[in-house]
Amino acid sequence: MPRLRLVIGNKNYSSWSMRPWVLLRQAEIPFEEVQLEFDASGASVIGIEKYSRARKVPVLMVDGEPVWDSLAIAETVAELFPEKHLWPEDAKARRVARSACAEMHSGFQALRGKMPMNIKGSHAGKGLTPETQRDIDRIVALWSECRQSFGAGGTLLFGRFSIADAFFAPVVMRFRTYAVEVPRLAKEYCAAVEALAAVREWIEAARKEKKFVAADEPYTKK
Ligand SMILES: N[C@@H](CCC(=O)N[C@@H](CS)C(=O)NCC(=O)O)C(=O)O
User: Is the CB of 117 under 6 A from ligand 1?
Assistant: First the structure.
């Protein structure tokens, strides 16, 4: 088995880090965690140059070699552990799952900008603009399509846990923090994600963090 070290940022704020961490932990794949901190401005990660020239978290070190970017990490983990079935087994479901992850990876800029992940925060109603509402509506439609077409075998997007759920876990965190109103099916999906052991563990650790990153706290005065 390859030696895996996952380099992440703050658990309260780093939505990109949450994805591979939840993926590995929920799939019960052993890894060593290296946690780095953002600098005070939130613009860079202290010490990241040791791991990746891209200078962003997350990075997965596989036997000392870096894989950077959360989507590349997810694909690598799926390839290294085929027995974990981290993508849905059905080819059509798998195409949709890949598309959903790619859409999440490259889109939803308004939601990211106006509702930054902040697990400890509670900012009901903040960040809701026509643009963020459009992102929210698209996410809800996507979740509904996945649940209705492929979700019969469980409570998650493709029934059982997959990479897609790891990719949307930070969105679920945002919906909590900003108390975003969503229809019943999306609410149930959010509850299912929050009930995942790995997500609970991440939230618990995030709540213990003390670091304040101004860039991710547009609605907190300090
Ligand atoms: N597309 C990348 C984005 C990673 C990313 O933007 N990470 C942020 C933290 S959540 C970061 O490292 N920022 C520091 C910087 O930009 O210098 C991925 O999916 O891994």
Answer: no
